[in-house]
Amino acid sequence: MKEFITYLDSRIEEGRAEIAALTADGRKDDANFAKVRTNIYDVCRTVSRTLADRPGAGIDAIAAQLERFRTTWGAALEKAKQHGDVSGIAVEETKLAALEDVIAHFREVTGA
Q1: Cα separation of 66 and 85, whole Å?
Q2: Global confidence as pTM
Q3: Under 8 Å between Cβ of 66 and 77
Q4: φ/ψ of residue 55, rounded to 5
């Protein structure tokens, strides 16, 4: 589990550096998408730490929560598509892409 949290920490730090570089370069839209990605890694880290420390929760609870995120954000993507919300579509796709990276690494590290 420590390896997974360390991975999330590194992705958050990389994201913060990317946000700063993009902002300094005047690339506000790209910086905003980097903020969305970084936020997803941060949310997943917070949830994972909380569930890992909760008695009786652990790896299975984390896997279940990540799947709930996938379901919720997938539904938000579909709703954005139905309404032709181009900005919403881009944000939800960015969130889901970051989440897929988190899930893949979680499975690799934990075997879940």
Answers
A1: 25
A2: 0.93
A3: no
A4: -60, 130
